[in-house]
Amino acid sequence: MMIRCVIAILLLFRLYVARAQSADEWVYLDNGTLRLGVNKTAGACVGFLSAGTDGPSVLNSFDRGRFVQQSYYGAPDGSKWVENPWRYNPVQGGDWHGKPAVVLEFRSDDTKLYAKTKPLHWATGAEIQEMTMEEWIELKGCLVRIRFRMAYSGEMEHPVHHQEIPAFFVQPELGTLVLYDGDEPWTGGELTRRQPGFPNEAAKLSEHWAAWVDRNDQGVGLYVGVADRATCYRYGNGVIRKDSCSYIAPLAEFALKPGLVWEYDAWITLGSVKEIRERFGALHADKEDSK
Question: What does the alpha-carbon distance between residue 231 and residue 61 come to, in Å, rounded to a whole number?
């Protein structure tokens, strides 16, 4: 009897997952080198990235809080995430119950995409009327460039808080975090490799990038030129299951206040650690040359 109950529960769960996935609306960019997908039923967040047209995605989109997306924090407001006291937290993808954020504008072609989103409060699911989030995405060879913008028109000035720029979730098979945290950036110094635990651990980004890689040193890198530190973790204790993931978020520290507009570029690429570092080094050099 117990076995029958377990089988019935598993069948119902698979049916639920299949229905949820079929309700998702994905839009893809493809330049022959990279294939990128955004989910219009999750605030147009980036949730798929593969090498070539047929490769597996390195990104994790288990729930509305995963993805590659904007997420900001303000004052404690009496809300709760499950049983955890929470705070003002507009999230591009939606809330923790799975309610999707509202996509206000959307347009795309083969290699470029634009979206404007009305975020939701992660804990309460309320629409954040006083904030909009925008993204401009472009495939540039083996690189993804995402221009993020947030505009806050609320009347309340929130306290200073660490902000995710952006939240970046990848598949749990990419279990080693690689970065440079020394004092001589862009000189070819030795890289740091670690497997963060859970909950969050701090990281220093002396070269403004980090990569999650597999046992073959292949994976995905993220470069945010305005961030020199990050928070990271591995969820699932290294066990590969549906809700496991690897996570990092480069950080900025600022307050949400009336009239604030915050924008920045995030770059993503796939490959070996050597390739990732070289590509991001070239971006850094171009930035320095343009000053």
Answer: 19
Range of the domain at 248: 26-289
What's the whole-model pTM score? 0.90
User: Could you give the CA distance from residue 257 to residue 234 in angstroms, rounded to a whole number?
Assistant: 32
pLDDT (tens digit per residue) in 220-242: 999 999 999 999 999 987 677 88
Task: List, for residues 162-180, the tens digit of each pLDDT value.
Answer: 999 999 999 999 999 999 9
* 56 is a domain residue: yes
Which 8-state DSSP code applies to residue 101? P
- CATH code, domain with 198: 2.70.98.10
Residue 111 is assigned to a structural domain of this protein: yes
- DSSP annotation string for 153-203: --SPPPPPEEEEEEEEEE-TT--EEEE--SSSTTS-PPPEEE---SS-EEE
Count the domains in the chain. Answer: 1
Is residue 8 assigned to a domain? no
- The residue with tokens 């952006």 is 166
Does the residue 121 lie in any domain? yes
Helix-, strand-, coil-residue percentages of the chain, each rounded to 5: 15, 45, 40
Which phi and psi angles does 73 have, rounded to 5°? -130, 140
